[in-house]
Design a protein that fits this description.
- The chain is an alpha+beta fold and about 200 residues long.
- The chain contains ten helices and four strands; from the N terminus they run E-H-H-E-H-H-H-H-H-H-H-E-E-H.
- Strands 2-1-3-4 form a four-stranded mixed sheet, sandwiched between helices.
- Strand 3 and strand 4 form a beta hairpin.
- The two termini are about 15 Å apart.
């Protein structure tokens, strides 16, 4: 089994779209597995009084244009800026916790981001969530009920605290050993580091 590169992500992070749509293929090509780890970067940002785009229209406009350019560079579809911010209750992310425990997190997360970025179906809205889950062959009611269970809420909160304790403050973040690589544009750096330091 290849060693795992930890992939901390938050459904609701705009730049995470670029990573989520490409990291599996690249990691597999490099002989690495990814461990998908949903966490609440929103909670960390609020605690640190760091909301980079909300209420900052000039920076927000730049972010969307930058995302569009980078998506084009990677061959990832981008139509127009979708609704933002999203998932205020964290439901889409707690479903990702369920999916990570049950082994279908990559499929769910990619489907959620496609629905958000290409069809402007905001993550966390129950009607959108049900549609995504049905398309993946999952029972929407069972899955949503499990995502609302105190055990899953505690796991989500615990993973968020763990990420914060590691020094993680943004999404996406990649981690190999004790080395942290923040941002989609640092994914290749993380891959390179893992290859050069396989035992770190």
């Amino acid at each position: 089994m290849p060693r795992e590169l930890d992939f901390f992500f938050y459904i609701g992070s705009t730049y995470s779209y670029l990573s989520i749509m490409r990291v599996d293929e690249i990691a597999a090509r490099e002989g690495l597995a990814l461990r998908w780890r949903p966490f609440s970067v929103r909670s960390i940002m609020l605690e640190q009084n760091n909301r980079p785009f909300v209420g900052k229209p000039v920076k927000l406009a730049y972010m969307w244009r930058d995302l569009e350019r980078r998506a084009h560079r990677y061959g990832i579809p981008f139509t127009s800026p979708p609704e933002y911010p999203v998932d205020p209750d964290g439901l889409a992310n707690r479903v990702a916790v369920v999916a990570s425990l049950e082994g279908w997190c990559p499929e769910y997360t990619k489907a959620t981001y496609r629905a958000w970025f290409l069809d402007n179906k905001a993550p966390g809205e129950v009607q959108h969530l049900r549609s995504i889950l049905r398309a993946l062959g999952k029972d929407p009611e069972r899955t949503i009920a499990r995502a609302d269970d105190p055990e899953i809420r505690a796991r989500y909160d615990g993973e968020t605290e763990h990420a914060k304790g590691l020094g993680i403050f943004g999404s996406p973040t990649f981690m190999w050993g004790k080395e942290i690589f923040w941002g989609d544009d640092r994914f290749e750096d993380a891959i390179e580091w893992a290859g050069a330091h396989p035992d770190s």
